[in-house]
Amino acid sequence: MKIVILGNGIAGITAARHVRKRSDHDITVISDESDHFFSRTALMYVYMGHMRFKDTKPFEDWFWEKNRINLLHARVERIDFQEKILYFAPRGNLPGVFTGQGGNVPGENTERGAAGVPEPLSYDKLLLATGSKPNKFGWPGQDLDGVHGLYHLQDLEAMERHSAFMLNGQPITNNQQPATKRAVIVGGGLIGVEMAEMFHSRNIPVTFLVRESDFWNVVLPPEEARMVSRHLREHHIDLRLETELKEILPDDSGKKCTAVVTNKGEKIDCGFVGLTAGVSPNVDFLRNTELEISRGILVNEFLETNIPNVYAAGDCAELRQPLPGRKPIEAVWYTGRMMGETAAHNLISDFGLGIADWHNPQSPIRNPQSYTPGIWFNSAKFFDIEYQVYGDIRPHLPEGHATLYWEHPDGKKSIRLNYEKSGGRITGFNLMGVRYRQEVCDKWIRTGTHVEEVLHRLGMANFDPEFCPQHEKELIRVYNRQTGRHLKLRQKRGLDAVLDFLR
Amino acid sequence: MNDASLSIATPKRAQTSGRQKFALAMAGLGAVLLLLVWAAQNAFAPVPVLLVALGLMIAGALLFVREEYLTRPEGIRNNGVWFRSLSARGVWGWLIAVVLTGFYTVLYFFPESWFTGLTALFSPFSHLLRRMPADKWFVYGALYTFSILVMGVKFMFKYRHNRYQVLRTVSVMFFQLGFAFLIPAFLQMMQQPEYYFTYFWPLKDYYGSPGAVQYYSSATDISVYFILFSTFMIVVATPVLTYFFGKRWYCSWVCGCGGLAETAGDPFRHLSDKSLKAWRIERWIIHSVLVAVAVLTGLLWLNSWQQGGVLGRFSHVYSTAYGYIIGMAFSGVVGVGFYPLLGSRVWCRFGCPMAAILGILQKKKSKFRITVNGGQCISCGNCSAYCEMGIDVRHYAQRGQDVVRASCVGCGICAAVCPRGVLRLEGAASDAGERARQLRTVHVRLEDVKIL
Lengths: 503, 452
Ligand SMILES: Cc1cc2nc3c(=O)[nH]c(=O)nc-3n(C[C@H](O)[C@H](O)[C@H](O)COP(=O)(O)OP(=O)(O)OC[C@H]3O[C@@H](n4cnc5c(N)ncnc54)[C@H](O)[C@@H]3O)c2cc1C
Ligand code: SF4
Fold this sequence. Notes:
The structure holds two protein chains of two kinds.
Chain A: E1 2-6, H1 10-22, E2 26-31, H2 43-47, H3 62-66, E3 69-73, E4 76-80, E5 85-88, E6 121-122, E7 125-128, E8 132-134, E9 147-148, H4 153-168, E10 183-186, H5 190-201, E11 206-209, H6 222-234, E12 238-240, E13 245-250, E14 257-262, E15 267-269, E16 272-275, E17 279-281, E18 297-299, E19 310-312, E20 317-319, H7 333-349, E21 377-382, E22 385-391, E23 401-407, E24 414-420, E25 426-432, H8 438-446, H9 451-456, H10 472-483, H11 495-502
Parallel strand pairs in A: 1-2, 1-7, 2-3, 7-19, 9-16, 10-11, 10-16, 11-12, 18-20
Antiparallel strand pairs in A: 4-5, 5-6, 8-17, 13-14, 14-15, 21-22, 22-25, 23-24, 24-25
Helix pairs in contact in A: 1-7
Chain B: H1 12-15, H2 18-40, H3 46-70, H4 91-109, H5 116-130, H6 136-158, H7 163-189, H8 210-218, H9 223-245, H10 248-251, H11 256-263, H12 276-305, H13 312-337, H14 339-342, H15 346-350, H16 353-364, E1 368-372, H17 382-385, H18 393-397, H19 413-417, E2 423-427
Antiparallel strand pairs in B: 1-2
Flavin-adenine dinucleotide (FAD) is lined by residues 6-12, 30-33, 40-41, 43, 75-76, 129-132, 150-152, 191, 194, 282, 285, 314-315, 331-334, 336, 380 of chain A.
């Protein structure tokens, strides 16, 4: 069977690896972005000089051939779902990073040189894993040079190009005025804060326009949101809360951005505008086909689209029936990975014994697997403050729930536990500057453990490095103060107890 | 350096501030002063010259640290590592590599007379410590310890938010200063034979030889305890400590070679090769060295038992060759000289027979592992990039599999640089035999999955 996977991100690649793990089908992975799978989440570290581009590739380049996963660097322009054929765009039209004199990613431009249009490719089963694209909300000037999101490699290249311009002042095109050494970032989410850190690392001043009254307080509870706002300012980020972008002004050439105007009427000169107001599924080229699309490609719990033998996974997929408390599109790395695994299972599952697993006729793969991502978790880092979340943490406490919050006097660490007022079931953990174990939190939430039982044994969850201070006792003190109880921490940090607990 | 990054900007400009350049120049001046004394073969006024040289280096280092770390909030600071010539195998990196290899070559393979300038410079200090003039080994030991102390302080400021890193560094500084420098000097002052209590066979192959046993058994009335201590350490303490704490109790807490790698070598840790091929080569070489030293010691004992009979000449040639090739060229010249090219743990990773033994123990009989926090890994690659031993930590982390690798020295930097809090160094007894088997990110039923 010929399996074609469109998109070489975490969803597509996980699917390809898992199909290969369990079967001998022909696998082709297509991407217009890079020859090889790289970690999008690490783009910032390349810009900041922590890593080279090649260090972001989770597998060495020989891996793909050895595991007989065909890679095709090309852009799919159109899909004929009736005939099951993919049609490609001419190669010369692939986007930026590998062509400009600057983009020196060795080994990444091999297929690029080949002119012409790749032959149309047929498939038996197709997995769409096309990812996202940065949102643009129709701001005047949003398509000027120097106005970019941060998603694809090509965006990173644009950041590089404009950073060079801002730092060294060499104009990129004729009749450009020298760029102001300042970047304006629009939209207070996780990618925005990464972009801020990136420019900051090169000593390019950053103005950060955030619509909310505190950073990311549509997701973070108020205390944590304030902590991040404070921390951004500690790093000299010019954070403008409750400020929105109104328009982006071009320079004399009319092509390049030179300033932004905010909704408060202020004009801020800048050499770069970063658009980081969220992402949306990268599915435009699939619209107006028989494929059902809402915001993303609509899939059922088996990740099947409305067209037989066509599946979707990752950022581009929208669940018709999201799980309770979860969103139909969750554009994060982890869900991409889990969906990729589920899709792999289902791509080969209905082939019955002996074919599904080439090497093992006893293979248990028979039935389709539904996508069950388990308890929500996520993590991020805001400059120096790490963030982890397990379970249900909302900016505003839902009815009938209570919260327990401890913050370190230095204002850079906090622990939050949410639980149901009646019954005491634990519902979520929110950590800033403190690391907790996913499996332990997961099990407590899954089994609806009482908050006091959790507090007694909270040391088990602690995942901070050895010798680092443990703050569980302080959290319990807050609980005792709030409730008049007299709990004590009975379990300190350590793996032995954890293994016992998880067994 | 075409592969350094996507960078077309010259980010360097924004990376090193004027004050930092001044600080580096100051430290450089101190080093140049030492080189001048060396080249001139004359210390002129030893005490002031030495004080000025070391003072410049200390002041330069501290000023650099201040600018680099203390002017910013605490946290991981690896900005520009791959842009800087020194840390990205640029001109400065190569230059330092050439200077260091040159220094070690002269140190090991050239006569004492090449060092009259430096020994004269260090003699007052040597008199103070051990009531005898300095020789080249004293000079080397002093400079080595100095590097660990100064760069150790730098390292502690860099990782001041992480208590594991700070304590570990205090420990290597303590063991280097006390056990590898002051105590041997003190022993000499007390008319006892020089002895290093933190080096054991097979790293210090001599301590396992019949020659050493004979010598220390009778040299002075207490020296027999020295050799007994070393024997106890390698035979009893090493397996026990490694069972509880992993290889790190030695490699990144005690050992002087490790100490230099962790402190002075820290700016180069990312240069280690992470490829599967490098891992293969590593296992071949390091285990060959272990075999070679075992053969060496075996030969020497056989020979001493046979009273120099059949194997006399051969064991002598073999032992000399081992000393030159492994003891000097590999552990010294390549081991430190190649820091700026192959990373800070070249010797520890590819050569050290002690590391080989500790590695086997760590892999087969230890509680220690790097635990992976469920499915939190985003495959970013920071952990692998900053592993000085060239372990592809990400390979394990992204599959949710605990890291159990013979080479891991437990420096804990992977866990420190991980931006998602995925890694933790820890130990547990209950699953010690199957530490590497857990798969945590598995989402579809476990029994469906074979590892790819
Ligand atoms: C800077 C940044 C940081 C992030 N950090 C985190 C984080 O810390 N944690 C987290 O959980 N998530 C993070 N994310 C989100 C996460 O990276 C995404 O959710 C994930 O990469 C999505 O994977 P995917 O496989 O669905 O799609 P993608 O990785 O987007 O892969 C899709 C690929 O398909 C290609 N493609 C699309 N259309 C076509 C076509 N027509 N022809 C050929 N190729 C095509 C695209 O070019 C792309 O290469 C981050 C994202 C960014 C941009
Ligand atoms: S640094 Fe952390 S998140 Fe990044 S690859 Fe390593 S374990 Fe995963």
